[in-house]
């Protein structure tokens, strides 16, 4: 799973604990992934079980026992990758990435819809387009690649900008698709409407 390797990658960058990893994931990947914070902890557990990460002493504490459910006030468990974890991360980085399948709920609704569902589906496409436009507005003021590289920021800054750029492009494509679907539904309604 990609989340597991993303968490491992964050630990390859520098060691960290659960909440720290959640924050770093948000900073580097952005809101497009919409990751549930609990997934970070699940990934940490899997990574530790597989021997890819291990708990280490924090700045002011001894090595904490393996984390179970943490409670308020419990010491943080700081993790770092093992040698095996570093190797597995390198393998993951070198592997071909697969394209994610289309799994948006609207796609299922379209596939399973009946003619009577078209008016509500048209409304849904308008609602989804509005959400896409709002998310695009959050990205206004982004810098183009040439400007980023010209200012010679660090690679992590450029990489984070490229992830945001992927979301912007995806949102633009989704808006175009929603408009095409809406037009197809509208034309279908006109053809089947009683005269």
Automatic annotation (TrEMBL):
> What Pfam families does the record tag this protein with?
PadR, Vir_act_alpha_C
Q: Which residues form the Transcription regulator PadR N-terminal domain?
A: 7-85
Q: Cross-referenced InterPro entries, in alphabetical order?
A: Tscrpt_reg_PadR_C, Tscrpt_reg_PadR_N, WH-like_DNA-bd_sf, WH_DNA-bd_sf
Superkingdom of this protein's organism: Bacteria
- Give every Transcription regulator PadR C-terminal domain span: 102-185
What's the protein called, per UniProt? Helix-turn-helix transcriptional regulator
- Provide the species name: Conexibacter stalactiti
